Fold:
Amino acid sequence: MSKIVFKNVYKTFDSQNVLNGVSLEIGDGETHIILGQSGCGKSVLLKCLLGIFTTDSGDILVDDLSVSDKQRYNEYIRKFSILFQGNALFDSMSIIENVEFGMKQVRRDSKRIIRSIAEEKLLSVGLESRVFDLYPAELSGGMQKRAALARAIAIEPEVLLFDEPTSGLDPVTSGIICNLLKETVKRLGITSLTITHDLKVAEFLSDRSSILNKGRVVWTGNTAEMKDCEDDFVREFYHASCVISKHRLVQ
Ligand SMILES: Nc1ncnc2c1ncn2[C@@H]1O[C@H](COP(=O)(O)OP(=O)(O)O)[C@@H](O)[C@H]1O
Ligand SMILES: [Mg+2]
Structure:
């Protein structure tokens, strides 16, 4: 488990201020969701957290480690695992080889041990042994997401990151995957941070959520309290999300 602190983080591209002083604390073992419209800077924030982008100013800490401490960056980055939006499975490797690949980067165990851990992780996310030797293209979107989750947890991270975990999935599969993510982070007892534009995901998954707008966190709380927020943008976001989900039900 790990605590994450964003301290007044700024990030500009050319003259575009994408992050304008993001401050946020995510507690040990918390399931936190960052919500916001497309293009508001969610992925940029995630890339700053991972040190893929350097911030212009401010700091990001995981426990006592700062993303900007280059000497301890390996120790810092080792805490994370990410479930990418498009799963990022290697097409040329079988499902089980995909799970083993991540582990081989960080563990020195024998092939036999790595194989047995990979099998155990795949089973734990609901994939049966008959799919272990198939290739990603042979699996449905939901099964690929499960395989990517198995790969993410196989390296035993302290923090799990989910980037738009339900995008590209149909509503039923989205619900099943959300259940699996929730069950997995609770079972492992680890901190998780999800970024999404989908309020339904936050309502289902999160302990607490935040809304990002114009490069700042404009609201943090339990999603049930969101409708009572006075901030105009938060109200608009909440009502627009409700209209969309009603529309989905009518369809
Ligand atoms: N590498 C980059 N170079 C320049 N601009 C970028 C880069 N990455 C993201 N941006 C800009 O930052 C803004 C936020 O993007 P992003 O974080 O991807 O949004 P989202 O909230 O949909 O994940 C966008 O306007 C995007 O054009
Ligand atoms: Mg994004």
Summary: The CA atoms of residues 81 and 156 lie 8 Å apart. The mean pLDDT is 92. The two ends are 41 Å apart (CA to CA).
